[in-house]
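Appendix B. One record, verbatim.
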Amino acid sequence: MLWLVTTGHPRSHRRTRSRRFRILLTLGAVAVLAVVAVVAVPLLRPPGPRPLFQLPVGCGETWQLSTYPGHDDYDVDLYPTEGEVWGRPVLASSEGTVTVAGINGSLGGRTPENPDGPRGRGGGYWVKIDHGGRWETQYLHLLEPPLVEVGQRVAQGEQIGRIGSTGNSGAPHLHYEQRRGWQKVETWFDGSPSGITHDDAEYTLRLTSNNCAPAQS
């Protein structure tokens, strides 16, 4: 005679599996909430005070800032008022941490040796810097791979690249943006607004850079 041997009631096994499933589900939900809290809560906080941004170019240099119809609100193009444009140093507007250093879109083929080469797409070589308090700056159309890396801490005035014409660019220049949270805002330099707020019409002004190394004690 065969005896049927069991190690427990089937219902007890189902209850055990059900309890384990509920525990795992609860732990998963807690983990998701923790991630959301870490990522989303800082983004919901109001932005901090505006950093004292400086022009992203050499100390004492005078540059033309401009926009034009179709350029997009708050975007600024910078051109030197004298001297060669290609290869001019691009400097960090304020201290911060590099969050992007690479290629936006495609590079195209415009170089100092071939300035009328084919255009690329987007911003070409570019850098984005997080300045804290949900403030960011962006630097586009750089000549070559950025001189900084993601995660690198940079000081105000530190060189991050050189001016070029990569991406969707018709001539060598620096496309520059300031952002508060996810939104572009009017650029301020040395504590004053630039006046570039929309792209309804062509607009230019000249400013002299105060992006100078701190005095040595």
